[in-house]
Amino acid sequence: MKSKFSTSHRSPCIRFFSTISLLLLVVAPFVSAQRSGRASEELKPAVQAQPPYNVTLFTGSGSAVPSNPDSITFNSAAIYIGWGNNGGPGGQNAIPSTIIKYDYQGNILNQVNINGHNDGLKINPVTGDLWAMQNEDGNANLQILDPQTLALKKFYFLGTGQHGGGYDDIVFLNGNVYFSCSNPQHNPNNEPAIVQFTTSGTGFTLTPILMGNATAIDIPTGQQVTLNLQDPDSMTYNSGGDIVLDSQGDGELVMVRNPGTANQSVYRVLLSANGQGTTIDDTIFPTASAGFMLVADTPGNSVYEITAPFLQPGSSYSASDTGGFVGRLEVETGVLTPVVTGMLSAHGMAFIPPPQ
Fold first, then answer.
1. What pLDDT, on the 0 to 100 scale, is given for residue 12?
2. Domains, the chain, ranges and CATH?
């Protein structure tokens, strides 16, 4: 049965409200003034790059806190990494996450503990603020931080969505803000997989943009398929301005062209490596031929820096959680060619262009 939510048009809105006064009750961030250098751990012997790529350790941790790095983002002055510290994905064990600010050489500049399990971290290109999303499995919250001091500026309790889970990643595109709807509790999933986030005062609205059972075009075959997105996860956009959603457990990428408009269209590609299906946690699209890629080996408590003599702008790289590698992705076929291998489980990625 076709859902009441169209895949081509905006659907009825879901409205929530939040107050900044809740901060004193549920959030108690601690900003550390400590400064320390790049972690002393060496590159693990199993982690290797295929020529012409090179891999080095950007940062790591040998302690319980911080641990489990995942989401990575940056601005022109710093790199930000979210460390989950073995917290529960629904915030159920009350372990805070740690957001650490680094310079481009991996030295720690600042850090803050925040309430919940961080699983989305992006810089708002309009305001410059750092947006952190917590509790992807349910009871989600969004915290907006000052990128310099990491002080909390705004807090929104997003809760558990109509899909039955929380919210994972964030995309800023054409002046709009989008969230991925993670951990859905419906199979088949006929609830939102991507929503648009808008604010009014202390309240906010979540508008469905992509449904979990949307109609899509399979990129390699050109055939029409019906999606059943069971694991919407990381989200970004490509050089053409399409939203790119990783449905992690399904082993597929979903592209949304002209999101939220009457001309919206949806495409998908199944992923494979070495002739076998695989899953990925994150995808990046380098925007310059120089610069470097970062990837978090979450259970390995390490973040690696990947370089090459020349990176093709607009090319695609993905981090395979099940394969423990970073691979060059051919979007037209879904085939991943590993370029860095030997990680325990590769997760969050970012491309860091050279400073202007």
1. 41
2. 14-21+58-352 (2.120.10.30)
